[in-house]
Predict the structure.
Amino acid sequence: MTRERRLSELLELGDQHRRAGNAAAAEPLLREALAIAQSEFPHDRLRVAAALNALGLLCKDLARYDEARALYERALALVDPGEAARSKDHQVATLYHNLGGIEHARHNHAQGEVFARKGIEVRRQAGGDDVALAADMVALAAILDGQQKFEEAEPLYIEALQILERSPGDNAAEIAVALNDLGALYAQRGLSDRAQDLLTRAADMKRQAIGEKHPDVAVTLNNLAIVHKRRGEYALAVSLYQDALGIFEESLGAEHPKTLACRRNYDRCASEAADDQA
């Protein structure tokens, strides 16, 4: 097997494991891929950048945000934005998207917004990838949502959904993310019926697209629990929090920020449920 083929297979298999929520299997594969890219193809900047980005995605999933950002920045330094735009390569836009995601996860929304807007700008210049552009729009909307800029975020979500739903191919996972995020926005605004409808659809689509035990499913279950708790439907909320917490603990571990946040939500809800019954 050639080193080029080995590198391609490592990246593909590592990303498959990452997308399935199996970080333990993904990490050694992606680290080996990066080592091969750097040692065997040091002058192929795009190839090395792709390996850096792939490992960065995994580190972000594992909440190793400093490491993820450093990997993205190393990748970005290897890629010429002008060359990428001329060749219709979307790698630069993807890296800005991913940098925005890091700052969103850290709640550094202002910095995340800068990266997200830059990603959309570069993506539009490169042209052609409507699904990726819609994902950029969802990411920016989530960052705006985090700053309570609801009036700007909502139409972005809706436009992105329209793009995804009319685009060819299987975009179920991307549609589910947009439905989840828009549902969470409606929940924050107290529009519980609309929130529940979108979040229920998102949960069903995620289960079909990525599996019952994927942490992204737990994200939506947690959001659904929030809606039911605010309605005073404590038993249903507690059950949803329990389901989400079990998935987070199994897939991400007990100390991951998403696990800790869900556990806090569950503990508060269980306490309020007990008080309500007293």
Remarks:
- The chain has a mean pLDDT of 93.
- The CA atoms of residues 59 and 67 lie 7 Å apart.
